[in-house]
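Appendix B, record 7
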Amino acid sequence: MKHDKYRSEHIDTILNSLDGIKQVEVLSFFYTRVSARMQLQQVHQQAGWIGFISKPAFAIAILLVLVAANGLEINQLIKQNKTEMSNTASIQNFAKEYGLSSASIY
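Structure tokens (predicted):
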């Protein structure tokens, strides 16, 4: 019983401490800063994919993909050029061996 009385008084003390609480006054510029940040966030959401593309990590990734694609294309061109040169050499060897003229009319 004594324990319940102590508990009840403790709860009353806590609830009475809430009576002294006052509403916090906000600084005058707080509302303008919050509204400016909300507008900025709306602009970024409207930009959508443009905002995503303008990120440096995305731009670097795209740049690396393009450089890799160019490197592969150059590698393919070099291989193709080597095979064309070997084909031309084999045609000339064939013409030379059989005594044919490989001179072009053009």
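Remarks on this record: DSSP finds four helices and no strands in the chain. The CA atoms of residues 53 and 105 lie 55 Å apart.
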